[in-house]
Every structure is written in structure tokens, then in C-alpha cells.
Design goal:
Layout (H helix, E strand, L loop, with lengths): L20 H5 L7 H14 L2 H6 L16 E14 L2 E12 L2 E13 L5 E13 L22
Length: 153
């Protein structure tokens, strides 16, 4: 196993990457839409543009998906996941930083189970909120340190 596979998965499952999202990134179908959504978050963390496009429903997939190398992702929270047959929705929020600007992405994503047995992302209703951590607030990166002694330094 590589060192990445032996690290905690960025999706927040509490499992090792090699036992979690890496399997999906290597082509294994996700058991649920939530598992696919978590793997897509991990793909954003790792800059896996090809996987993000492949896991997108062909009816709504963009021709390209430019990723910003300066975007850093710091945490995923799944709020709700519901499945009804071959359709599902997942509500989540994710914290990220672009340069010195912090944001929280809240989204309700729609997924469909394709004929090949793979869940695919269809679309989502996203809301981006800027985060403005104060000097003495906990750092949004999740370090448990004050912002001024962490990312705000």
C-alpha cells in the first residue's frame, strides 16, 4: 500500500483511504450515492479531474472541469442521504480555502444509478458562503488551533 492509501480518507468516513474512496477511484462501483459523493469530495481533495468527469452523469456532464490548484479542501460533513430506487440525494457541506479566502459549500446533490451499476452525480443546488474566521476562532482547517496560530499566521 502507498502512504496515501494508509492515511485517513479525506471524505471523513474514519477509514483508511485504501479501504474507502481509493477503491472507487480505481473503478469499483459505489454501493450508495453517499459513497459516490464522498469519493467525489476526495477526488476534489486530490485533484482527480478525470474521476470527477467519469462519475458525472453523461446527460449533465460538462465538456471539461478545470480545477484550481490553489483550492485546498478541509472537511466534509454529510447532513442527509436519501435513496428512492435508482435516484438519490445527498446533502452536505464542505470547507475550503482559495488563497487566504475561506468558504463553506453547502449542496444538495442529485444522483442516478446507471445501467452499468455505477452511481453518477447528476447535478446539485449549491450555496457558497464566505467564512470570516476571527483571530481567536478555531481554524476552519480543522486543526483545533486558533486561527491566528494556524492558517491565519
Amino acid at each position: 500500500m502507498s502512504s496515501k492509501a494508509e492515511a485517513l480518507c479525506p471524505c471523513g468516513s474514519g477509514r483508511l483511504y485504501g479501504d474507502c474512496c481509493q477503491r472507487l477511484h480505481q473503478g469499483q462501483p459505489a454501493a450508495t450515492a453517499e459513497a459516490l459523493m464522498r469519493s467525489r469530495y476526495s477526488a476534489f481533495v486530490f485533484g482527480m479531474q478525470e474521476y470527477l468527469l467519469e462519475s458525472w452523469d453523461s446527460r449533465t456532464r460538462p465538456a471539461e472541469l478545470p480545477l484550481d490548484n490553489d483550492t485546498r479542501w478541509f472537511g466534509l460533513t454529510v447532513h442527509d442521504s436519501q435513496q428512492d430506487g435508482d435516484r438519490a440525494t445527498v446533502s452536505f457541506s464542505a470547507r475550503f480555502c482559495e488563497g487566504k479566502d475561506w468558504f463553506c459549500l453547502s449542496e444538495v446533490s442529485a444522483f442516478a444509478l446507471a445501467a452499468d451499476g455505477h452511481w453518477r452525480y447528476v447535478d446539485g443546488k449549491a450555496d457558497f458562503q464566505p467564512l470570516q474566521p476571527g483571530r481567536n476562532d478555531l481554524c476552519p482547517c480543522g486543526s483545533e488551533k486558533k486561527y491566528k496560530k494556524c492558517c491565519g499566521a
